[in-house]
Amino acid sequence: MAPKNAVQSPIEQAALAKRCSHEGVKAGAKAAVLASVATAIPTFASVRLLPWAKANLNHTAQALIISTVAGAAYFIVADKTVLATARRNSFKQN
């Protein structure tokens, strides 16, 4: 283990950054899957049950609603995870 004030080599910094981003990708993918399911169920149910939704939401609109929520969930969770991991690693080094 390096002393508290030691400077990391570029290889160690790259490995740490890769681990942080990998954790963010995993957390973001889990959130996207969960958000997709949580959005798909009410979207499909509303298209079947509500006359307005049946008339106005075609397959493309349904896919757009679900994919937008999944994409937003992915990027929000991945960003928060990467920042939290970087913050945690920063406190470990100090």
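Second entry:
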Amino acid sequence: MNTGEFTLTPNPHSGVDSPGSSVFDLPTQPGQPQASPGGNLRSTPGQSTELLASTPRDETSFVVISGGTGCNSICSAFGRAACYILPVSDDGGSSSEIIRVLGGPSIGDIRSRLVRLIPPTGPASPLEAIRMLLAYRLPANCTDRQARDEWRDIVEGRSNLWSGIPNDRKEMIRGFLVYFESEILKRAHKNFSFVNGSIGNYFLSAAQAFFRSLPSAIFLFSSITNSQANILPVIVTNHTVTIAAELENGERLVGQCEISHPVRQAPRIDISSESEPASPVDPLDGTLPRSRNVMFQSEGKDHYEPLGARISRLFYINAYGNEIHPAPNPDYLSSLSRYDVLVYSCGSLWTSIIPCLALKGVANGIARSRSFKAKILLLNSANDRETDGYSAVDYIRTIARTLNDGHHAQTYGGLSKADTTYPVSAFITHLVYLKGTTVEVDVRAITALGVQCVEVEGRVDERSKLPQFDAVSVAHVVHNILDNMRDE
């Protein structure tokens, strides 16, 4: 007799084999480094590490300022005692379509780092199955309908990507993907495209929208993947963050893609009507008109059309195109006084590093930090569209100028002119560059700025034939720097 009761059961038509137990083989991590009240990290007995083993070097902690892909290949150089500062202004790839339709901060760089920091496991591990799902990207070379059909298989639980994921994890992840789908359907008139879409981006975006908190979404992602990653968005907001660059010829470029890697697309008929942005309470509120950069692929950055002039400065703007000065994440500022080494990672200078520096309070935090033993810049092996024609001195001066400009308060009637201009060496103590780099390194000029130069041999990339940093060489050079400083 039917009593009207019902029970939730796994989808019998899923077509995939998912374990029923919530307990699965997460990698054990005894001796996870823990922060002491004084800010240094201590290790508990039995600590295991991948690269930095057997010496007090294991206790070294890092603040790493980077973008999404430039640092991914060297993350293991910093061990588990690292804090990653990431921008939230990327408007390319899958992030661009999410921002265009749903708004909110960009989460693509953060998702990329979260996936990279998932602990390695065996190929049959449920954790590896979760990693494969959240790292999966829908095809780029297909029609909108084909991409949408594959998305339907995933969100409805039929895709083989669910195979090996325990049912409780599966239904939790799928629940947020369903939530993402519902938010898309509410805005059906905007014709969301799933082409080249990242499943991890969809999950993280849904979690951010559900919790109304990007840090909470990062915590959820880290929890289900056991990454224990310490990732801080440079700005904590629920609104879209937009950067703009002013060139030396007066031209202004809006959005990271337009600055770094503009994507030219065929004209598209859009019958949707965008509502005017609301009067902002948060200075980042509202959404600028968005172009579709969904087809951007990072490999395309090797071939670029040079800018009309060099970039003179980078700044944040609101929905009306006016310059604003958002507050940096308080946890970011506090990290500058608690860790041992600051690293400006390799990657895009103006759109990955500078957005994390062009904020009030960051210059003081770096220059006056009593915990930093070294402040290291990893120099790119080649220039890109943003830095075409740059020498190593240009990289250093750009970072120092940005920090000093962001540090200075606005003046009123000639008052408040007593701001400190920090020397270059207050922000950068060491430049690490690759043997064979195509960027000019004038050791004498750099040394005159108070910055020590260190050459390192990296691996040669098969595609570009250029030297690249790898985790082993970075770990080695960083700890050599620290050892030499102890001996001085």
